[in-house]
Amino acid sequence: MSDYDIAIVGAGIVGTALAAQLASHARVLVLDRRGQAGSTALAPGYVGQLNTLAPLTELAQRSVAAYRAISGAFDDVGGLEVATSPAELDAMEVRAALARSRGLPAEVVSGARARELAPAFVEGVEGGLHFPSDGTADARVITAAYRAAALAAGAVFVDADVSAIEEGVEGEGTQRKEGMERTEGTERKEARKVTLATLAGPFSAHTLVLCTGVWSGDFLPLPAVSVAHMYAYSAARPRRPRSPFVRIPSANVYTRDHGDVDGIGSYDHDPVEVSADAMRTHTCAVGGFDAFHDVLARALRVLPAHTRVGFEGGVTSEGGADEGGERAERAFAEMRRAREEGQACAFNGLFKVTPDGMPLAGRVRKGVYCAVGVWVTHAAGTTGVLADMILEDLGMGEAKDLELRKALDPLRFEGKADAVEVALRTYNDIPRTLRNFMQDAAP
Ligand SMILES: Cc1cc2nc3c(=O)[nH]c(=O)nc-3n(C[C@H](O)[C@H](O)[C@H](O)COP(=O)(O)OP(=O)(O)OC[C@H]3O[C@@H](n4cnc5c(N)ncnc54)[C@H](O)[C@@H]3O)c2cc1C
Predict the structure, then answer these.
(1) Do 126 and 89 form a contact (C-beta atoms < 8 A)?
(2) Ligand 1 pocket check: which of 246, 335, 375 to mutate, most ligand atoms within 8 Å of Cβ?
(3) Which pLDDT belongs to residue 321?
């Protein structure tokens, strides 16, 4: 018999959220080689629920509902998109109607009101679109809460690096299985066995779920591409009254108040891919910053001067955007030190993009599942859909959310030779804000 019913590899927000939902139903093992070094540790936590892709709106709404139930996890400061032209302001009316039709409050506001809502980040704009039920999520608090919930329900967490996966049948030894074909057999569930090789010894389970974030390429040849993305924190400053996070679609920049510092990120550059081979040298989800100095300088121009000044002279790491190994470790440590000491800093964090901007979450083949390319914004909702699917397959639940399962199916790009290129091109559309909305609406 297998040691566990379900083994989850990866204890970022996705793996822990899934473990919390499965642990009261089955014997769950979670393996992670080094917690708090994945993308979750770096996420600045913007949660905008409206998405032009309806399934993502639904998953974000479910996630926000779940995060609200965790103390200190979700701050409902609201979100504000700003328009810098009359055309953008017109499009905001349509976008506001779309939001309301999906149950999200949304209001188009004047330039003066936008500035009043977020004076540190907004000046000289045409108007804005305010989403009062959006907010910011603390991914570390959420991950810790889900871990605690999973532990309390009996899940076991082990620090271990999974170096190989073998699949087979109980009592017949195991055999390595290559390829991504989905096998629709009629094996009894007790007969399956997945063995995970680690330096802490082998672990076996009936069902395997890979929640390995930017390292998913190690075991899953799926079209989810790791990309580099810059984010910067200002030097520490006195606290201000709360304000919504702000997106400036015309500049592809987003910015927020983190309490005692400000933050800013930018998609205004060509996508920078980090190959699966390069990812093998990364023990944390960061790379060198050299590619991003100009991107940061451009992004800062959108801020009022009194806020911009806080980012000046920030600590950055040297090296190429895809550089891993010791250099990335140093960059990660430097960034954390600068933050602890209240110094301005900027870093290059890594996350996944997929060909249609949606997660790859579901069954890869019998007994093997994944949840990859999942944002903090959608993590609780996505893992809820996946948990129900796994429980149903184990004979412990019913079929639910069939449309969402289809939308998230990790094999939906099978046979599409250009899927990786398409995934990379989605990078600049990730916020799926007004800018993207106007592009979608264009004839
Ligand atoms: C700079 C930046 C800004 C972002 N901004 C936002 C935002 O504003 N809003 C938002 O919603 N999202 C944002 N994201 C995206 C979000 O952070 C990620 O999508 C999310 O955290 C991914 O979670 P995860 O659990 O899938 O991956 P991770 O947190 O990376 O966890 C994967 C885990 O798998 C483990 N692992 C991998 N391979 C193995 C193995 N072989 N053996 C053992 N363990 C293994 C790793 O150690 C890691 O802990 C941002 C990300 C970055 C980097």
Answers:
(1) yes
(2) 375
(3) 86
